[in-house]
Design brief:
The complex is a heterodimer of chains A (about 750) and B (about 325). With about 750 residues, chain A is α+β, with helices and mostly antiparallel strands. Chain A has 30 helices and 18 strands. The model of chain A is unreliable at about 550-560 (pLDDT under 50). With about 325 residues, chain B is of the alpha+beta class. The longest helix of chain B has 22 residues, at about 300-320. The chains are: A alpha+beta (about 750), B alpha+beta (about 325). The interface between A and B is large, with 44 and 38 residues. Chain A: Keywords: Aminoacyl-tRNA synthetase, ATP-binding, Cytoplasm, Ligase, Nucleotide-binding, Protein biosynthesis. Chain A: This is Glycine--tRNA ligase beta subunit.
Amino acid sequence: MPDLLIELFSEEIPARMQTRAAEDLKSRVTNGLVEAGLTYAGAAAFSTPRRLTLAIQGLLDKSPTLREERKGPRVDAPEKAIEGFLRGAGLTRDQLIERDEKKGRVFYALIEKPGRPAAEIIAEVLEDTIRNFPWPKSMRWGAGSLRWVRPLHRILCVMTTEAGSEIVAMDVDGITASNVTEGHRFMAPAPFAVHSFEDYAAKLKRAHVILSAEERAEAIWHDATNMAFASGLEVVQDKGLLAEVAGLVECPVVLMGQIGAAFLDLPPEVLQTSMKEHQKFFSVKNPKTGRIERFITVANRETADHGATILAGNQKVLSARLSDAKFFWENDLRVAKSEAGLSVWTDQLSNVTFHNKLGSQKDRIERIAALARELAPMVGADADHAEQAARVAKADLQSQMVGEFPELQGLMGRYYAAAAGLPSDVAAACQEHYSPLGPSDDVPTAPVSVAVALADKLDTLTGFWAIDEKPTGSKDPFALRRAALGVVRLILNNDLKVSLLETVWRAFSDLPDALLETTLEKIADFEDQVANYLDMDVNEVFDARLSREDKSGELTLTNAMAENPLSQLIEIGPRALLGFDLLNFFHDRLKVYLRDEGIRHDVIDACLAMPGNDNLSLLVARARALSDTLKTEDGTNLVQGFKRANNILSQAEEKDGVEYSFGADPKYASDPAEHALFDALDLAEAKITPAMTSEDFATAMQAMAAMRPAVDAFFDAVQVNADSDVLRRNRLNLLSRIRTICLQVADLTKLDG
Amino acid sequence: MTPARLKPKQSETHLGAFRMDQTTGTNAGKPRSFQEIILRLQNYWAAKGCAILQPYDMEVGAGTFHPATTLRSLGTQPWAAAYVQPSRRPTDGRYGENPNRLQHYYQYQVLMKPSPPDMQALYLGSLQAIGIDMGLHDVRFVEDDWESPTLGAWGLGWEVWCDGMEVSQFTYFQQVGGHDCHPVSGELTYGLERLAMYVLGIDHVMDMPFNDPHSPIPLTYGDIFRQTEEEYSRWNFDVADTAILLQHFIDAETECARILDQAAEDPKTGKRIVMAHPAYDQCIKASHLFNLLDARGVISVTERQAYIGRVRTLAKRCADAFVTTPAGGWAA
């Protein structure tokens, strides 16, 4: 069976696209071949800066013949129908066969598609792949209309069998497939022909090209670590950089150079960032001092002077870069240590627009500072420090260093806040308040950092909610999902007992009316929504609202919501609904987060349906406890028992038109199982009620699950719908107790199954 | 590459002794001055068939703004040109003190339409022509996509690194003035000062020999530009009258639109004369005035986008006009 070798040779492919492109080439070509009936034994893809390569082993030399039987119209069908069938099948009338069936004699067409030689199929599939390649960005060149990531120069397409090799004949926009490729651009530029993958790989190696990106990366890492080790140093690991550098060279040559003594005092992060971002250098540090003392660069060629010229050039470029960085660092430090300190920068932030509707960065900082102060006691932070940290956390955005290296924002803030003599928890918050950025990013734990991080994210969320710029589908230009997940993780990791609803209402109240105008106009059915939320009659809400219309009061973050939710909601007005909407968004993020933790969506729904669901720590503690309970046999069976009780009860209540919520009386208990259930319920209740008060969900749920034998035994022995009305009513009231006990733990009706 | 050396004449030795093979445009040995590097590039690209143009006589931020690039990259007519373009970036002024930053500097620009298949090789040849030995240096093509929001243009290509330093931009234009480029132009931009400093081994731009250091009157870059850098830095940052600049911006914008609003047929000659170039001059003016206003720090972040959008609108209208002229491929 033949092997196939394909190479697409082009001008330099961006490093970040190479790996994906090699995989795309493999999947598109192999899928196309298989679809056309050409199966294969194995395939491997490779990439270098100038080539994508695909090697396929054990390909069929032609596609199998396909036979298809197609049922047609009846023999006595109208002429037109038969003609249509013939056209579709590509046959003539005499080629059809007739068969007797229940409904009469029917035409059948036997269509045979002969197999096609592999070369023909390969040419079609490869052309289609090239023309429709999923580059993130592609271009045209010269006078042609073909698109590729950069100009495509050669198509190598060779089939190899025991008998020899042949070029697969094809042509894409004037590029004719051949068996020829080129080696390293400078070290071995002469074209050469190949006849198999082994031959290709060997000749490339001789032409100073390492075909496999992994092999290049390994070679780089091996040489770099050895070189550093020989000087008693170590290379700072950076997988992303390693992959990128491996995509910039075909013939990696590792060189280590010195960093000028004048620059060694720069913060290590500055050295590292400057070297990585601008020069793609690896940092080499002294393990004893932790300082970065040298760099490693990877050249794409060997030279007669063993890289001396290349290294000297790189060193010179680095010096120029670091001179800039040092200049910025020294200027920034001068500002930070001046009398005005960081306020020089924060004042400038009034000229920096955050968003044209949400005002300047300075406006935003004012809001974050107020909110951070408010949150401080809830997270155990000093309120003054939290406010102060919020006021300087964005100062470094105006520093020269962050202007040059935006990725150093926060970190530089920490250095400059420390230089300005601010408390260390304030300085730390400058860096940490951006965290957590991604789902695996570390979550801050220092109280001041937590307060500012929460305030920052909540301000972003309430701001964009207020102007109705919510994420839709895949569009989330302001990274609001990330911000919401950040809030969720800050609360959960620090086990904060925060009422999110009241907190976001507070944040909404800081936003001017004019800003919310258009958004609030859309909330026409305020009374309906409030009524729905509080499960009240809409007229009641309406009346309550009318009666309060002329009163205006300050919004206070008390437990007013719990005491008098209606008046609280009316007080807040339509902003309250934005809060509900935002809370839903947090709940959505939370669901995704808990799903990754292995907690079922129906478990989360069962807990979301309980009051206090804006306290995420509580909500999650409940969900985790319920999830654990459901993993026990008692737990799952108890839920079945609960559902059975609930079903019987609901049906009876519907039929009788009453609610069975009077306490059952043990004196009417006739069966021992019934007595036992009374005892079990008393026992459970005695444990659950205090456990719930202290928010110990695990204990509460264990106690609930412990009712299981009694509940099961009751259903086995006792008929609820007894002939005696007294007995029946008493038993229904008993079931009602089961329901009440269970429902105070979680809304078990929401559970699947 | 074994260039047949021309024996330098006495007068050439005086001028800087550039040893040039007139047929291949290649040279031997290291250049000795800034101007020799420019002359070698001129000769090289002349030998490769480019029309060697002169700088455009207006203030621009980059060589791309020269109509020989912006407008000629549009339409179907073949084109090959190379030129030096003095470029001004008012915000980069450092009073002549920074070793690498200037508010006035030179770019070398090459535009070939359609881009030839061996454009990369041609480019590498030009590096050799200015004395970069490919056997000793590490030249790399590193992804860098180009976009000019003011020109409504973008392209894909690379920044070219020599031993880790960016020495040129290499771009295949995909769109200019909102028009798809077909055929595609290949554009090369060399930052001349930086490249020359590297080749000549100079650390501070002002120390770079402008003419041959062995000339009777040797001149450094600083002899010629230190004072002007200082003068323009002061004017750009602190003195330029922003009210006047703003008025000039509005005037240029108005005039550009007015020119393009004229009927194609000239009532005096009766000929069809679309005034794409005079209109484009006004667009260039507006763009530079915006840069000056920016350097004066009077444009806020939000206004910035609006100004850029206004210049882009002009650039697009000029491009629309150019493709209805003979040079833009329009045929009656």
